[in-house]
Write a structure and sequence with these properties.
Blueprint lengths: L4 H11 L2 H4 L2 H12 L10 E5 L4 E5 L5 E5 L2 H9 L2 H15 L2 H15 L6 H10 L2
Antiparallel strand pairs: 1-2, 2-3
Helix pairs in contact: 3-7, 5-6
């Protein structure tokens, strides 16, 4: 599985949308599941081996199995791929075109995604239900 900054940036730019964003961290987990955690045949490349402790595993580019406790490595890769910037752009565009309710809603979604850096618990919990 490729967690490089270039790969993440490309996936985010081409696939991250308002439909994922409006779900906050859970939406980011669904985005990752839908776009980058499966191979061409639809088999998972990133699996949860211990849902209660949120321990994930994947093979790196050299074929070595990597452990990702609480999806911290995946979270960092997404953040390094400019997830916050993509979220900010979507929120800004929606807030400009919307009303006061849209402003509050999209501000909340953006802040939830921005919090990934400090607390990715909602992301990790949702991911553990998707990649079992």
């Amino acid at each position: 599985m490729d967690l490089s900054q270039e790969k993440m940036k490309d996936m985010i730019e081409n696939n991250f949308s308002a439909s994922y964003m409006i779900q906050g961290q859970k939406g980011v987990a669904k985005f990752a599941y839908d776009t980058m955690l499966k191979d061409e045949e639809g088999r998972l490349k990133y699996i949860c081996t211990d849902p209660s402790r949120q321990i994930f595993q994947y093979k790196n580019g050299e074929g070595e199995i990597q452990k990702d406790v609480k999806a911290k490595k995946l979270t960092k890769a997404l953040l390094d791929g400019d997830l916050k910037s993509a979220s900010h752009k979507i929120a800004s565009d929606k807030m400009i075109d919307g009303d006061a309710d849209d402003f509050l809603d999209y501000s909340t979604y953006y802040l939830d995604i921005r919090e990934l850096e400090d607390d990715n618990s909602d992301f990790s919990k949702e991911l553990s239900t998707l990649v079992i």
